[in-house]
Amino acid sequence: MGAQKSVHAGKAKIDFNVDFTHRLCAAMMVHSFRNSGTGSPLSLIVGSLCIKHPNLFGKSEKLDVLWDKGLSDSNILIAYRKPRPEWLAQHSFVIQHSVSPEIGIHGVPVDNFSRTQSGGVNLCRFSAGLDLDEPGSSNWSSKTSIKFEHVRPVNDDGNSISRDLHGFPVTCSGNYGDKMVVLKQESRFAKADDHSFTRFSLQIEQGIPLMSKWLIFNRFKFAASKGVKVGPGFLLASLTGGSIVGDIAPYQAFAIGGLGSVRGYGEGAVGSGRSCLVANAELTFPMNHILDAALFCDCGTDLGSGRYVPGNPGLRHGKPGNGVGVGYGVRVKFPMGHFQVDYALNDYQQKTIYFGFSNVAS
């Protein structure tokens, strides 16, 4: 649900795209079934405004401005790209500012871990830097970026904080914010045919301490997935994991639980640790040309690393550190997008229903 409009400014054309469909169906869930820590059903509605200028200075320079705004979070991204030959790395200068609740780490699990309530910690992030997209082969692509980041925790009133409601630090420095320069390398592999596909991605982040109090760390994350046809159905299996060594702030920990991780649990309700491992398996089979049925099983663990996160938020909130969720669902294909409903059961026999909507173009 959105609108598109193109306007001419001199010799240039500016494309506007406004979209209010993202997470709309999740916001319409009945309160008792919701998997969010917010109180209002409208809190999950996110509006998006995208402005694209394809010829900023008359030499095909591109400017993209993206603004996502919800009731409890916001994100502004500005990207500027100069044209370069295809065999050279494509450069983009990116500035981003976001504010969002840190529910995955500091949220409080409730209702037998099926939901997560806000813990009163929000993250205000500012970053600026350079992205380099390397020329890809038929199956491989890579991206390198170096950015300055400033992370400032705030409470629900927007005031800067250095400790959570229990008096434990929410930054690595112990001050009202953390600063860092992060060098990030990301590689992706994708291969597909009529009967299967394989995907793999690896992200490595290195914190560079240009100043004495800036964070120094190494963080990696991988994701591997394989899909194969099984008779009329399709089986998808995936494995994700990661770890971080060196300096760590609580917000850098891996949050386990929720949609996209372990269904049946609230966001981050399984655990939050320096390391994580999550496995997912889902079998879908067609019912008709627009409706698919699905069976799934998710499991995740913090590998016993939750106690190594500063302040040990996982233990303080009673997170188990390991969790399994099983369930079933339906996938409905519409021309405007895909609608998804999942019914999940966790280790504590708590039932949760998830709703989702994704645009075809996204």
TrEMBL record:
Keywords: Membrane, Plastid, Plastid outer membrane. Residues 55-358 form the Bacterial surface antigen (D15) domain. GO terms for cellular component: chloroplast outer membrane. GO terms for biological process: chloroplast organization; embryo development ending in seed dormancy. The keyword Membrane applies. Its main location: plastid. It is found in: Plastid, Chloroplast outer membrane. It comes from the Eukaryota. InterPro entries: Bac_surfAg_D15, D15-like. This is Bacterial surface antigen (D15) domain-containing protein.
